[in-house]
């Protein structure tokens, strides 16, 4: 399946909801009040910091000297603002497929309220974050197998060998990594638990089909990725630029599948069946 030559995904800058969530995670849920708990997720604005992050990310993207053939933005307010503040010379098309993961009934709820009102669901989230879905919401696996595959099929049909830019959301980017980089469930869980793998506000995931070490080696598929995001160093804004990582489709023998299966213990003692 021939894919775009370069695919950039950008998470939105810091939003007002991010501020509320961070405070609640630190033990202060006071920003969740009668007014804020009725705000639809699509309506949250960027903070001043979020605007600055978008400008820094946009300047770095412009420095890559890539002319984008297509630029899409999620229909949410915080992604619209981020796309505008990137300051790039593109024409944006809105796309609902790349919207935020649906958080269902807990979308406007503090961490503390969620744990209290949905204790069983909260326990499931901790035990199986890939397949866990909030009440009336989506799991990462749902987003990956439905919406991410939808947009990748569109890009295959309409933008093979093009350069494409998407401004989207952190959870959609996790789901995209799961599909494009062909992670196993175990790889997802390992990375999701690793703080160094965090998708910061205005993180840029750059995928390419051109070997970064050999520009003459161009594949049909996207086979390399790097993560970059805005940081402040000594009071000055700059872009942290990660190393390129190669990835490819994985295939296993029956014996290798058994080794992977045996990494999990039996949960029932004794012998059952005959």
UniProtKB/TrEMBL annotation:
<feature type="binding site">
    <location>
        <position position="111"/>
    </location>
    <ligand>
        <name>substrate</name>
    </ligand>
</feature>
<dbReference type="GO" id="GO:0006096">
    <property type="term" value="P:glycolytic process"/>
</dbReference>
<feature type="active site" description="Tele-phosphohistidine intermediate">
    <location>
        <position position="12"/>
    </location>
</feature>
<comment type="similarity">
    <text>Belongs to the phosphoglycerate mutase family. BPG-dependent PGAM subfamily.</text>
</comment>
<dbReference type="InterPro" id="IPR013078">
    <property type="entry name" value="His_Pase_superF_clade-1"/>
</dbReference>
<dbReference type="InterPro" id="IPR029033">
    <property type="entry name" value="His_PPase_superfam"/>
</dbReference>
<feature type="binding site">
    <location>
        <begin position="11"/>
        <end position="18"/>
    </location>
    <ligand>
        <name>substrate</name>
    </ligand>
</feature>
<feature type="binding site">
    <location>
        <position position="78"/>
    </location>
    <ligand>
        <name>substrate</name>
    </ligand>
</feature>
<dbReference type="Pfam" id="PF00300">
    <property type="entry name" value="His_Phos_1"/>
</dbReference>
<keyword id="KW-0324">Glycolysis</keyword>
<dbReference type="InterPro" id="IPR001345">
    <property type="entry name" value="PG/BPGM_mutase_AS"/>
</dbReference>
<feature type="active site" description="Proton donor/acceptor">
    <location>
        <position position="100"/>
    </location>
</feature>
<dbReference type="InterPro" id="IPR005952">
    <property type="entry name" value="Phosphogly_mut1"/>
</dbReference>
<protein>
    <recommendedName>
        <fullName>phosphoglycerate mutase (2,3-diphosphoglycerate-dependent)</fullName>
        <ecNumber>5.4.2.11</ecNumber>
    </recommendedName>
</protein>
<dbReference type="GO" id="GO:0004619">
    <property type="term" value="F:phosphoglycerate mutase activity"/>
</dbReference>
<keyword id="KW-0413">Isomerase</keyword>
